[in-house]
């Protein structure tokens, strides 16, 4: 059984390397979104976990915003502008959540879900 362990590791690495950039983006956004949703559901009981999830989402959107702001980004200009707008909105809305303002995390979850649909070719941000 132990002789198969190195082979399993090699196959796992090959599978990881075969993922597309779009698939990797989808997985990262999905992971952050799941965490944000779970933390939002328990916001009152575990506010520090909620803050961490909001910050992870904000980090994700800051990275996306910086990426689409690069002149060398190959996405169409209109899509880049839409994504940058979503970054700005996410930034402002996250601050409201972190300040304890009367704001809901649901819109951030919906934005992420819409982007995930777009990455899967199901509509969304286009």
TrEMBL record:
Superkingdom assignment: Bacteria
GO annotation terms (biological process): bacterial-type flagellum organization
Database matches in Pfam families: FlaF
UniProt keyword list: Cell projection, Cilium, Flagellum
UniProt-listed InterPro entries: FlaF
Protein name (Swiss-Prot/TrEMBL): Flagellar biosynthesis regulator FlhF
Species of provenance: Rhodobaculum claviforme
Lineage, uppermost ranks: Bacteria, Pseudomonadati, Pseudomonadota, Alphaproteobacteria, Rhodobacterales
